[in-house]
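Form P-L/3: holo structure prediction, ligand iron/sulfur cluster.
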Amino acid sequence: MVDVTLAAVTCAHPSGTMLFPAMWVSATLAEPAHFSWLETGLLAAGIVISLALFFWRFGPILRNILHSKQDADFSLHPVGRRVWDFFWEVLCQGKVIRQRPLPGLAHAFVFWGFLAFALVSSNHIANGLQIGFLSPESSLGKFYFLFAAAWALLVAVGITGLFIRRFFVRPIWFGKKVSIESGWIAFLIFLLMVSYLGAFFVSPGGAAVKALWWTHTLTLLVFLPLIPHTKHLHLVISPVTVFLKRDGFSNIPPLSGDEDFGLVAGKDVTQLISLQVYSCVECGRCTEHCPAANSGKVLNPKEIALGVRSYLNELGPVSDVALLAEARPETAFANLLSMEAAFECTTCGACEYQCPVGIQHVPVIVGLRRGATNTGVWEDTYGTKLFLALEKNGNALGLSAMERDKFIQKEAFPIFDGTQEYCLWLGCMGGYDPKGREIIADFARVMKYLGTTFGVLKKEKCTGDPARRLGNDLVFQTLAEAGLKAFETAKVQKIVAICPHCVRTIANDWREYGIAPEIEHHSEFMARHKDRLPKQASGESIVYHDPCYLGRYRDVYEAPREMVRQAGTLVEAPRSHERSFCCGAGGGLAFLGEEQGERVSHIRAAELAGTGAQVVGTACPFCNTMFRDALAEVSTAPPQLLDIAQLTARALPKMQETGIMDQGTGEQ
Ligand code: SF4
Ligand code: SF4
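OUTPUT (holo model):
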């Protein structure tokens, strides 16, 4: 190795020495010339103690995960998706950077730096044990240690940035409690990097190099056992969590038998849930985007994850003690996992979408609801009324089926008889709600204009969506089976619906009981035919609200926007696409009272009205119904509220003027 005094020289030395003005620096990492057997022995003892402390905590965590109940529906299939998620979310840190670019990049520097340091740290420890395998003098060593030095710089910058953010910027979703342990971890990571970089500034023979080597080593030995004792456990298990998470977005798993009522006690917590809650890094991304947490409700999705984790730590995975806080007030974490919180969730999925370590909150929250509803613990006047309406009338609004018949007759909708291309699914809103009926009627006009044949089912019941999300499996099963039977009897091949909740429930949730015919949302149908639909040159500004069940759940963002662009000038809301803010109706909450805090629909309506757009464009009858009153509440001159079917239909010429035969009814 060559050390060079640098005063005025600024070019690369042929020996490979990097040149910086007026300082001693070498392009080669300095390592202690030799280690005494005493030093090697001390190091070996340090490693044993450090590993023992690591497993002292990591062992029980692993046991809790492995002893949790098996996930009955778990399958590694599709492996391709798992490999992609691992590559994108873990190796590329894509999700973290995309959702929070600056802190995400800082985190990514630390993560990538750790990967680069795997070889450096292994060789560092091996050197002390006198079995080093990568010499700093070798060509590979010269290159690799410099490469790692560049990463060390980035890690130091990244961790400093994250430290400043956590301790000085302190975003509210980190919570009120300052995490001292995070400060220590940040300090240790910084020290690791500085002690590594320092070895480029000292000569190999001196005492300084040994001091730096021991500083680096002791930091490593202290850092290792801290990992499972802190939220930095995610370093070890979150890559596994991301790889193994349940396939699909916010999927609710089937119950595993007659004795399974959902998440009632610790013994019902599954291995996937355990793995996920132990991965929580307490970043608060879920809370930041949660409509309940943002409107002053008790629910905080981060606390759902931490609540299950605390339960497992305190009571273990085979406990019979109830998970819900109301039933176990004496526990140390009595404030976490309350029934009140579980029933405030709109199942919007924003938490799951944001979580960087693969935690799937919705199955846990719905699991808790199942546990409370299926066992009769949850008592709610609105909930009881809703379930009765579903059982008795077959629709969530509790109206007689004759009301739907009258509407069908009024609109002269043909009954599906197997000769038409599509079955037009009305849903509870389209069949019974006045505004939902307007949307259906306008969408039917669009279909007629396009010459697409369709019919409606003579008898149609709710998909069971609100029962499913509120945890009433019996009611859901009855409705799903009735729906599947109705489609089978009518020989339906293709379905189109105006409600993303119906689309989701029929396409995904019903799979537990059979496979429904192919279904699509009316936005997808219309976007596919948009070239045949008239454009409007009004230039009217239309702000589009992404419904959670169409966007995050179905990944459909562009189709409704294409229809908005046909009708006017598209305006984007401050929170749109994957970050769209819920209207407050999902998860059955449209039918329950919203007692705590501000109304979610008002927050969103104010945001939409605040864009100054002339029209609010929706693609879900539930969003539409939520905004109906909310827009009037938050604005003195509220924008008009129209579904994309209404936006499209208003450009259509009157049916009589088109001369197009009404293929549904046979009328002109
Ligand atoms: S699904 Fe939505 S409402 Fe429920 S916890 Fe997650 S972010 Fe909050
Ligand atoms: S659940 Fe996920 S998003 Fe929420 S705090 Fe934990 S790691 Fe962060």
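COMMENT: The two ends are 92 Å apart (CA to CA).
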